[in-house]
Specification:
Radius of gyration of chain B: 28 Å
Helix content of chain B: 40-55%
Strand content of chain B: under 5%
Structural class of chain B: mainly alpha
Number of strands of chain A: 14
CATH architecture of the largest domain in chain B: Orthogonal Bundle
Oligomer: heterodimer
Largest sheet of chain B: none
Shape of chain B: elongated
Structural class of chain A: alpha+beta
CATH topology of the largest domain in chain A: Immunoglobulin-like
Order of helices and strands of chain A: HEEEEEEEEEEEEEEH
Chain lengths: 272, 238
């Protein structure tokens, strides 16, 4: 009898373990830039500020832009490293990449989807079976020394917005560009501008132009001839949310109380 | 055998079947854990219904459970009982946390790799005959237009491939062009990434829309060159 019960117990325990193992897991590979929340002033004008070290660094590979003419088959910049911060009002993004020479035409850009509609990463190129939306592009060029807020819906439709909300500042040292972009997290133009809500993942893509010239004095990378990434994720981190732990503690308490009541009732029924 | 042993064995057997046997059936795939959980719950419900059909079987089924829960005269099982009484509330708490806590992970992406083509692109046969000259010409076009991403070795590892997500298709992999018909490739090359349906995530693919740059005949030749170069054959309906 005792042996049978032991077998039962082992079988029961095995079942519980197997059941637990079959429950959905959460692990997922990180493919996102996380703009950490900070109470300090954002280093909007300082790509070398110590504050950037508090944000985790994400790295994304770049490819030559081949989707559309005029394409290019080789580019200088192969990766961008990205950090970001937010203070609840503004967001600041630091791009960092290796470029052997500083040139006036060196340039970099961030691209975001606008609103709920999906947009192709190549300037929101029209898609045959999906109604796409526009993209919002934040552009910086060394010789201009400022950020430009732009919109596009397909190659050839790029235009500078009538309202400029983006700032950008670049610093070049030791073969590395560091460029800070910043903007208010929300704007009054949700049809043209990306809107950032804390805790929500949005799509981001990157582009970089090496502004060097070839032997004939022409720019090697210009316009659609650039280094690009496809879409990755971006999130402005919200203040920590502990509600999950509270709900879990409540549920555990309810389960304990249920057990207690059940056993009490069973015992009473048994003795009666 | 006690009334509890059979149900437990049944549940374990069903779990093992779903987890380890079903995925190995040809043409099958691993079941998601949520589905396995659902099947186990259904089995459990069936067992309860079965055992509560008659008063006798009901007592035989619930009796041991009641004794276990109340801890009366269960001897050595007392430890297991405490284990269950501690584990159950913790499991409930853990599940609640999992379903209510704000996820820290980016949204899951369920991309269909080979979505259905539009009707006009099904069952087309290659109008270009499979001669050595045409294959050679197709390989030449492939080298010029496709190899920067899909690779000179047809392995998806061209010099321009590294930044793209999803990565360019590897044609030497038997799960790519070997599983597809020539008409499918014709559609994908002609319309490119932007021609994909929504489940193919057309907003992420860098594949050019070659119809604006290459004549159809060149595309058909590229298809011949691609299969030959990757040592694969198109799927047929035989």
């Amino acid at each position: 009898m005792r042996q049978r019960r032991a077998i039962r117990a082992v079988a029961g325990a095995t079942f519980v373990v197997l059941l637990a193992a079959s429950l959905p897991g959460w692990a997922q590979e990180s493919v996102a830039v996380r703009a950490m929340m900070t109470k300090e002033p954002l280093p909007l004008d300082d790509p070398n500020a110590a504050a950037w070290n508090s944000a985790p660094q994400a790295q994304f590979p770049l490819s030559p832009q081949v989707h559309w003419q005029n394409r290019i088959q080789e580019v200088t910049v192969k990766d961008v490293k990205v950090r970001a911060l937010n203070d609840g009002q503004r967001v600041a993004v630091l791009l960092e990449y290796t470029d052997p020479t500083e040139d006036p035409a060196d340039a970099a850009a961030l691209e975001f989807m606008v609103g709920d509609k999906k947009a192709h990463f190549a300037h929101g190129q029209p898609m045959a079976q999906v109604q796409g939306g526009p993209v919002n592009i934040w552009f910086w060029r060394n010789k201009d020394g400022k950020g430009v807020d732009m919109s596009a819906m397909g190659f050839g439709t790029l235009k500078t917005q009538s309202h400029q909300d983006v700032t950008a500042k670049g610093a070049y040292a030791n073969g590395t560009w560091k460029v800070v972009f910043s903007r208010a997290m929300t704007t009054e133009h949700p049809d043209e501008d990306m809107q950032l809500k804390p805790g929500e993942f949005i799509n981001i893509a990157f582009a970089v132009w090496d502004g060097r010239k070839d032997g004939a004095g022409d720019l090697v990378e210009k316009g659609s001839q650039k280094a690009v990434s496809s879409w990755w994720y971006f999130r402005a981190e919200a203040p920590p949310d502990y509600s999950g732990y509270i709900y879990a503690a409540l549920a555990t308490g309810v389960a304990l109380a249920f057990q207690f009541v059940l056993i009490r009732k069973l015992r009473k029924g048994h003795s009666a | 055998m006690g009334a509890l042993t059979k149900p437990i064995i049944l549940l374990v057997v069903i779990y093992l079947l779903l987890k380890f046997v079903v995925p190995n059936i040809p043409g099958s795939a691993p079941l998601p854990s949520s589905l396995i959980f659902l099947y186990l719950m259904l089995t459990m419900a069936g067992i309860v219904i079965y055992y509560t059909m008659s008063g006798e079987s009901k007592d035989a089924f619930w009796g041991p459970i009641q004794r276990f829960l109340t801890g009366e005269n269960i001897g050595a099982l007392q430890t297991a009982r405490y284990g269950v009484l501690i584990l159950f509330p913790l499991l409930v708490g853990w599940q609640t946390y999992g379903s209510t806590a704000v996820s820290d992970a980016p949204p899951a992406e369920n991309r269909t790799i080979h979505p259905a083509p539009p009707g006009e692109y099904t069952g087309l046969s290659n109008p270009v005959s499979k001669t050595p000259e045409n294959i050679m010409q197709g390989k030449g076009f492939y080298a010029a237009f496709c190899s920067p991403c899909h690779g000179g070795n047809f392995d998806g590892k061209g010099p321009a491939a590294r930044g793209f997500n999803p990565p360019p298709a590897n044609f030497s992999d038997p799960t790519t062009i070997a599983m597809l018909q020539e008409s499918y490739l014709f559609w994908r090359i002609k319309k490119g990434g932007v021609g994909l349906p929504i489940e193919g995530m057309p907003w992420k693919s860098a594949m050019p829309r070659w119809e604006v740059e290459l004549p159809d005949e060149w595309i058909w030749k590229i298809i011949l060159g691609e299969y030959d170069g990757a040592h694969q054959s198109p799927r047929t309906w035989e």
